[in-house]
Inverse folding.
């Protein structure tokens, strides 16, 4: 028989865990982690330059400098698996003052995620930047680890429900704590990587960068996982102490 306090804590922990997992999943699958605000297109010469950048972004070979410059100039957004730019819906980029903009996206393939970063983006002779390379790899691997830990915790919890046992609750809480730490580390790696990128690739004039809502979703999911972990650990410890007291009372 489970005390009402423990049952309430477990239900709240489950709700927090589900919310955190949904937030993290949405964050991983969307591109609004970081976004750039660029000035409007003015003049045919400027439009031609931006059009060539866009064509290289869509059809050219994968290159960090190429896609970074395009993101800077075309109101780009970049996430863990996607990079997108805003471009006019028609071919006449500069002739209409209020042209309709559409979002064009390209995904980072798995091999591209493991491509090394260089000290000078686009210059393969400048040497590999180990810090940026491993920050980039961590920022897309850690959220997958986090989701894996939550799925494992869910499977253990399901088996514990079938067995009507609270014994695995402490382990489930630890898994949620690790998931929250991995998610927080993802956000830290991403922010550090973007800061280092902006140091080696200076933003053009009048181009501003800001954090997007996808990053905030990931940031919110981390404390939710940790709160779920705290409730699970508390329920496990309290139930264990109460059980030993009852056992000692019966023996006495």
């Amino acid at each position: 028989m489970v005390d009402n306090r423990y049952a309430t804590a477990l239900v709240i922990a489950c709700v927090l865990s589900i919310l955190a997992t949904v937030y993290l999943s949405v964050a991983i699958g969307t591109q609004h982690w970081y976004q750039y605000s660029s000035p409007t297109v003015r003049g045919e010469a400027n439009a031609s330059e931006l059009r060539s950048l866009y064509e290289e972004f869509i059809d050219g070979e994968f290159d960090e400098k190429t896609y970074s410059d395009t993101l800077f100039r075309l109101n780009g957004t970049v996430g863990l698996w996607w990079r997108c730019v805003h471009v006019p819906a028609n071919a006449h980029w500069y002739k209409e003052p209020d042209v309709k903009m559409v979002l064009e996206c390209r995904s980072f393939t798995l091999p591209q995620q493991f491509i090394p970063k260089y000290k000078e983006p686009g210059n393969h002779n400048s040497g590999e930047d180990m810090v940026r390379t491993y920050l980039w790899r961590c920022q897309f691997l850690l959220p997958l680890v986090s989701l894996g830990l939550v799925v494992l915790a869910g499977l253990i919890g399901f088996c514990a429900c079938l067995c009507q046992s609270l014994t695995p609750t402490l382990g489930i809480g630890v898994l949620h704590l690790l998931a929250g730490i991995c998610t927080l580390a993802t956000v830290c790696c991403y922010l550090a990587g973007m800061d280092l990128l902006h140091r080696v690739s200076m933003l053009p004039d009048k181009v501003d960068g800001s954090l997007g809502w996808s990053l905030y979703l990931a940031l919110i999911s981390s404390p939710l996982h940790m709160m779920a972990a705290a409730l699970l650990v508390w329920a496990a410890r309290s139930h264990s102490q109460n059980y030993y007291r009852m056992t000692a009372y019966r023996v006495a």
Remarks:
- The beta strands are 34-37, 77-78, 82-88, 101-107, 208-211.
